[in-house]
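Input for the complex:
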Amino acid sequence: MSANTEITDLTLWQLRELLLKKELSAKDVAKAYLERISLVDPKVKAYITVTEDLALKQAEEADNRILKGDVEPLTGIPIALKDVLCTKGVQTTCASKILENFVPPYDATVVKRLKGQGAVILGKLNMDEFAMGSSTENSAFFPTKNPWNLECIPGGSSGGSGAAVAARIACATLGSDTGGSIRQPASHCGVVGMKPTYGRVSRYGLVAFASSLDQIGPMTRDVRDCAILLNAIAGYDPKDSTSHPSPCPDYEKALSHTVSGLKIGIPKEYFGQGLGDEVEKAVTKAMALLKENGAELKEISLPHTEYAVATYYIIAPAEASSNLMRYDGVKYGLRAEGYKDLLEMYKMTRSQGFGPEVKRRIMLGTYSLSSGYYDAYYKKASQVRTVIRKDFIEAFKECDCILTPVAPTPAFKLGEKLDDPLQMYLSDIFTIPVNLAGLPAISVPCTLSNDGLPIGVQFVGPPFKDEVCIHVGGAFEAIRGPFAPWPEL
Amino acid sequence: MKITRGEVEHISELARLSFSEDELEVIANQLNDILGYIDKLNELDTAGIEPTTHAQELVNAFRMDEPQESLNVDDSLSNAPEREGGQFVVPRII
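Predicted:
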């Protein structure tokens, strides 16, 4: 193993210690990552844009800060961002042709916070177009591969963010999660992924998909890394009127090695039809481990679980159809050529600029909001959402957190579900309810499948108790012991 | 509920999207599959249940009405497909 490979194998918190002790410089670290990106990314294809010059410049600044003792937890840490987060002066494409040449004039709040701490931005990561998808195959540019098996999907929509962590071509990444888009790729890529409580992290500068569901979150090597990154991005932002003003605890302090006395709810509805054998085995193993170590497992019921996917596929496309009306060829992004009038300009621009899945969801959303159908679809779904949220609130009267599978099966093969949108939608059955209810949830690697693909487990916490996810996720990780060695690439 | 071909065309007008004949066929079928699945919601009696539009209890977020720094005209127009002076250029409307 070369010296460079070693640097890229370190967790964020290990790297932080070495940087602080000046055993490594931020510049060495950035160079090691950039070198590994040029070696490994052609196979994995996680990056849409690599910001080499920016990274080296930021690394130099980080080294200056370290020299002066002006150090924050992310100073000198190489981080990459899902290409849905606006980065000032750096292309932000949302993996869409319609935004292919879009260069934001401002930074998303989370990006500003990372930069403020002196993080080193390595680049922008692939995703399903506008975060719509579960496989990263909906990227307008190219699909990303799963580092554990290059013939498999990395999950989605934050597939580039998951793959980059597993391939060690970023120390940590940010993703976004509207229906499972952080947790599902985290599970498929054998990394930790967390969706914070809705309102915990500012959405300012996150290109909107479904505004009442979207949330930005960390994807990392382990739960401690996740807590450190969450500390950096969580908190009130006056620029996002849905961000919550309540103070955030220090999430790193919530880390614990014990689950003794913790009441963990097991929702019986998550263990029926649709759950693959290998995932069921993995989750059962996780339950047994937690019980052996002193947790109390309690069967609970979330009776309206079976309605979550249907509810989501009304609400998310409805919000998306409205959010995506802004792509009209006027203010930014693509403008088609050869139109006769304004209406034709809109239609040609949008038809050429959006991919099939985005168009499908815009159509679905427009239909459900259109005159005569609003009550039957959008209003109905919003009412069912109330019921689903109440299920969780009731359940949390009986337990501290809830354990569930993340995805029904390990990562599937590229191309396998591409022609059947409904099947693709159903693969988010265990993650979607959490977004509808606005809860925090973390996916932590549990075991490998027979084919050597990672399988994660999900821990869901009560609203604004994100620290519960860090606590139980971190304790589970400690109990589980070291996960399989990272895949060779 | 079954969505008709005519409705798909109408929706595409509202959504400012255009599709070829073949695409219309495919999209009508896919929407019907998805809507068929969504019909499952009708099993539930939701009479009298308040709809949730946000999973959070915040009602209004106010701030003081004070001028703050904002994007300047040049930055705001920096991604415009076509611009002239301080303005976006669009095809003639009237």
